[in-house]
Amino acid sequence: MTAATFESIAPATGETLGVFPRSGAAEVDRAVAAARAAYEDWRLVPAPERGNVLFRFAELLKAHKAELTDLMTREMGKVKAEAGGDVQEAIDMSYYMGGEGRRLFGQTTPSELRDKFMMSVRMPVGVVGAITPWNFPIAIPAWKLCPALVCGNTVVLKPAEDTPLLADRFVELLAEAGVPDGVVSVVQGFGEEAGDALVRHPDVPVITFTGSRETGIAVTKAAADRLKHVHLELGGKNAIVVMDDADLDLAVEGIVWSAFGTSGQRCTAASRVIVHEAVYAELQSKLVTAAERLRLGPGWEDETDVGPLINRAALEKVHAYTRIGLDEGATLLTGGEPLAGEPGFFYRPTVFADVEPGMRIAQEEIFGPTTALIPVGSFEDALAAANSVEYGLSSSIYTRDVNRAFRALRDLQTGITYVNAGTIGAEVHLPFGGVKATGNGHREAGQAALDVFTEWKSIYVDYSGRLQRAQIDTAAQRPPR
Ligand code: NAD
Q1: Ligand 1 mean position to 133 CA, how many Å?
Q2: pTM of the entire predicted model
Q3: Which pLDDT score, from 0 to 100, does residue 479 have?
């Protein structure tokens, strides 16, 4: 066991919440060996029984929802309502994937030959390495572990170094639900150490990763030599389009929730608002008024609207982008500074106006409570601006014109598009993920998640009692005996 440790720090107060082992390759080796041994039995447990374990896990998450919610407000910093939503997402996912235990459908299809049967079935892959970020510290592990487990894989989880306490509680509840020893292990530690060792481990054929684009590229490269399956959910630079016929009050509510909720630390956060010039002035003033009304404070206090950023580095990064925006010539309407006199990592909700689509604050993921207003003269210009970034996770359009709405649904280059709602609000039974630099073609959640954690096996059974050659004996089918 390594002697090195690291601390979990409460972002609202700076206090230490716990001390954790800073694991490296040796601990990863041990966890993978246990997962590999456990796989030999877990893959044979009938899938409905694996699903039952997830149903029990969902019940336990429900029973511990208040405790996990409170812990999340302290360790990660998001406000109570959102922390409860994070836990609820894990509950929903656990029930949904528990039900997959009685589905996991394959296909049956007729053969081109007589007396021959064909079907495809999903097979587990083996040990899954799951690497998760801190911003959805219960939901994202559930998005990965629930489908992985119901499909018959075993898992080594390397959670984010900012939220180790929540990860430990998550895995403890899984064990209490009846997940056998070794089927799930957690390895606490840093990305370049424990994370990298997991990605490179020869006995881990699948890596499911959620995090930044830069880390996603590093993970892909590290996994390439062993041709591993790599599932990536990466960053976003999501836009809300507000057209001249939009309900502006509704749009402002959606922008505030999408841009400043979770202090902007969501992959689906609306960090751009593309506004038709006919309503630009009105929207701008309504948005500033709403942003300035938000109360910053610790997540566990009922009256708080916006919690802290995750750590000091995040605070510095967000503030650096304020300076970049000012240098680029954008107009700072509100915010743009840390909250003075607070021990925590609080940053004021920040709105920039007069932003050009090509500016860095309109192109790069800031991951903080900063949004950029981009004026446009037409629907076509709005779509072009929305699509001008390298990411493609979520998008939204506010309009009452059904033709525009459907054109936007077709032409916005993102994995998720909302009409008359902000850029967030995914539910667990539809695929979740993005196009372009947000991922590599896989999806989390819904049926699509099963494709990450299974391989198809095609099965042919010939019951004719003679040699039948596919593609050759089809035309000259011999008469039945
Ligand atoms: P990050 O990339 O810094 O870290 C994510 C995880 O990767 C952590 O557990 C970290 O320890 C680990 N890691 C870091 N370097 C590694 C390496 N070399 N090898 C293996 N593992 C390594 O991201 P973060 O700051 O924790 O999270 C924020 C990012 O996550 C944002 O870009 C956000 O958009 C993205 N995100 C995406 C989604 C999505 O579903 N698309 C959801 C949430 C967050």
Answers
A1: 5
A2: 0.97
A3: 58
